[in-house]
Amino acid sequence: MCVYCFTEPSAETPVFVRKGEDVFLNVTIADVSTEDLVFWRFNKTVNLARFSPGIFVFDNYKERIEFLEKYSVKLKNLQEADSGVYTVLVSGDKEKQITGYKITVQDPVSPVKLSVDSVSNSSDWCNLTVSCRAQDSHINSTFRCDTHTHTCSQEGGERPQVTPSAADLHVYLSNGYIICNHSNQVSCTKDIKIIENVCPRHAGPESVSAGLSVCLLKTAVLSVGLIIMVAAVITVHLMEKLKKHK
């Protein structure tokens, strides 16, 4: 027979929270004795709340904690100082950890700017160098597009970089676009350049396909319209003949 039954694993679950937002910390505990105390604790030493079986909130969290079902809580307006480990413990004859969350509070990432530094062309190829800039970091990358195959490649492959603020700065190719991406676990910003606009003669096959699709669609619409017009003329002609015959 178990004394403490719980649904969450005892290992600490990583949770990322955007600065200033709230977080829900869920836990389910069954068969708690009336003599046992249940604590929410921060970094193993700071008590947030105690259930015994009433609820007592410690001073530092009186305005920042909201109670949900059973022993689950909502922490409000998290700041960077709130990053750390939050655990639920049952204290009886022995103290037992039921579950834990490792919370990391992050600022949203800064905007990024993707700029084309240089372009060189020939009848066979187009080379361009770009800069991907965030508030605290930047990376450069070079792309080469082939006229005959309508394909582009990135020299050295994709270029990811970890910034001083622990975000990812990344520049890469995707479906005829150069994308500069700045992200962490709670936010993301992007800036995009269309390769066709920078190297007009080196548009990828997806651009050609798109152009053909538009042309085919226009042809189909015109054909249908012409058929409808011819059918309308024949119908009117037959109706007039029918009237004269009567």
Automatic annotation (TrEMBL):
Keyword Transmembrane (UniProt): yes
Domain Immunoglobulin, first and last residues per copy: 12-106
Key words, A-Z: Glycoprotein, Membrane, Signal, Transmembrane, Transmembrane helix
Domain of life: Eukaryota
Compartments, as annotated in UniProt: Membrane
UniProt entry tagged with the keyword Protein biosynthesis: no
Regions crossing the membrane: 220-239
InterPro entries named among the record's database cross-references: CD2/SLAM_rcpt (IPR015631), Ig-like_dom_sf (IPR036179), Ig-like_fold (IPR013783), Ig_sub (IPR003599), Ig_V-set (IPR013106)
Gene Ontology CC, one term: membrane
Pfam families linked to this entry: V-set
Protein name: Immunoglobulin domain-containing protein
Source organism of this protein record: Sander lucioperca (Pike-perch)
